[in-house]
Amino acid sequence: QVQLVESGGGLVQAGGSLRLSCAASERTFSTYAMGWFRQAPGKERVFVAAINWTGRTSPYAESVKGRFTISRDNAKKTVVLQMSNLKPEDTAVYYCAADTLFGRVVAGTGGSWGQGTQVTVSS
After folding, report:
1. What's the pLDDT tens digit per position in 77-119?
2. Do residues 76 and 24 make contact, with C-beta atoms less than 8 angstroms apart?
3. Helix, strand, coil % in the chain, rounded to nearest 5
């Protein structure tokens, strides 16, 4: 399994921006697909975005399309979720996921997960 550590969460006003980072311990990080999920209070964890080892991204969740961007830096072994024009409904714990198979990351069945980082958007 890959050790994943998310950072960058916090409290922001609606309309603001945050940049989440996920640092991986895996030496072969560049061969892994990565993804972001989120879980709002009382709700199930849901897919946000994913990126494969070449940098190709999956379609974004409809709720974040046009506002969030996923990217990766293989040299730094990090994946970033840039979030802009944040809304109160974006409030959730955001999780990073990794797997060697892109499809498993997108499906939420990836083998490795981070501990999550809290994002709170105030109205």
Report:
1. 999 999 999 999 999 999 999 999 999 999 999 889 999 999 9
2. no
3. 10, 45, 45
Q: Write the DSSP symbol of residue 100.
A: S
> Which is it for the CA torsion 112, 34, 115, 3, positive or negative?
positive
User: How far, CA to CA in Å, does 19 sit from each of 25, 61, 86?
Assistant: 20, 17, 11
Q: How far is CA 18 from the centre of its chain?
A: 12
> How many C-beta atoms surround the C-beta of residue 43 within 10 A?
9
Element (H, E) at 83: strand 78-83
Rounded to whole angstroms, the maximal C-alpha distance in the chain is: 41
**pLDDT tops 90 at residue 41:** yes
pLDDT digits (tens, 9 = 90+) for 18-37: 999 999 998 889 899 999 99
The pLDDT of residue 116: 97
* Structure tokens that stand for 85 in this block: 């024009």
CA distances, 121 to each of 4, 48, 93 (Å): 24, 17, 11
